[in-house]
Design a protein that fits this description.
Keywords: ANK repeat, Repeat. It contains 13 helices and no strands. The protein has helices at about 1-5, 25-30, 35-45, 60-65, 75-85, 100-105, 110-120, 135-145, 150-165, 185-190, 205-215, 250-255, 265-270. The longest helix has 17 residues, at about 150-165.
Length: about 270
């Protein structure tokens, strides 16, 4: 039916009238209906994949990202690919200042979150484009509260952080909204630690302290673990630190990507 209407000259990019609210583009309607076949037909006929709702509320891509945790994830996955392959702007901002990437970081489904973040980055999403509050995606990735089980939460955080870093995210800034903070400090404030040997990860907020010592910053006073015991391997290097395991820490990912362990950061770590 859609192809028939298009062939008969139906308008595929309707012009909005002033002061009309709630009007969606046909592309946006196709995404809302989880209908990839119609979406493909509209785009092939020249429909604008970036047309926002009246008032600039949302874009088709933003809606497709949201559909990734709906009831039809297979169709949502197809629509996401269809839009991105049609050269949809991966950084289009909605009225709340969200981008598709920052929206994807809030998805609660583990598989959907990791898949969507990677897909957007593969199609050119800016890993350093901040949200309306001036906070960059890497910091949002570390800070977001998700409803997964703790193990899935840590794994999701680790995998999305790795994807952002691999795409070129700046590991030494949180963005203009947090000018006096660093992603590493946020990771440590989330008790994101490392595991040494067979000992359980109970080193509350101490990773930067330890690496500050490894990197020959001024000696630090005080315990380096919750139990007051220093790690048993004083010559450990970044290459020896696992990025996977039972706790999937973000800290080694940041450190290996060049996160700076400054005295200013060390002064703000509470242990």
């Amino acid at each position: 039916m859609v192809n028939h209407l298009i062939s008969r000259g139906a308008t595929i990019n309707p012009v909005r009238k002033p002061n009309v609210t709630g009007l969606m583009s046909l592309v946006r309607l196709a995404v809302s209906d989880a209908d990839n076949n119609t979406l493909v037909a509209l785009l092939k006929a020249g429909a604008d994949p970036n047309m926002q709702d009246a008032g600039g509320l949302s874009t088709p891509l933003m809606k497709a990202v949201g559909e990734m945790e709906g009831n039809n994830m297979p169709e949502a996955t197809k629509m996401l690919s269809t839009l991105l392959e049609a050269n949809t702007d991966p950084d289009g901002v909605d009225w709340l200042g969200l981008t598709p990437l920052t929206h994807a970081l809030w998805l609660e489904r583990f598989a959907a979150r990791v898949y969507t973040v990677n897909k957007l980055l593969e199609h050119g999403a800016d890993p350093d484009l901040p949200n309306a509050h001036g906070v960059m995606p890497l910091t949002l990735c570390i800070e977001n509260e998700w409803t997964d089980t703790p193990a899935a939460l840590r794994k999701a955080r680790s995998e999305t952080a790795r994807a952002l870093v691999d795409a070129g995210a700046d590991v030494n800034t949180c963005g203009p909204g947090l000018p006096d903070s660093w992603p590493l400090l946020h990771a440590l404030s989330r008790n994101d630690g490392l595991r040494y040997g067979d000992e359980a990860n109970d080193y509350n907020k101490v990773c930067a302290l330890y690496y500050g010592k490894v990197r020959e910053l001024p000696p630090l006073e005080g315990p380096l673990s919750a139990s007051g015991v220093r790690p048993a391997e004083p010559n450990i290097t970044l290459a020896d630190v696992p990025e996977e395991g039972w706790n999937n820490p973000v800290t080694p990912i940041l450190l290996k990507a060049g996160a700076e362990v400054s005295q200013a950061l060390l002064d703000r770590v509470i242990y």
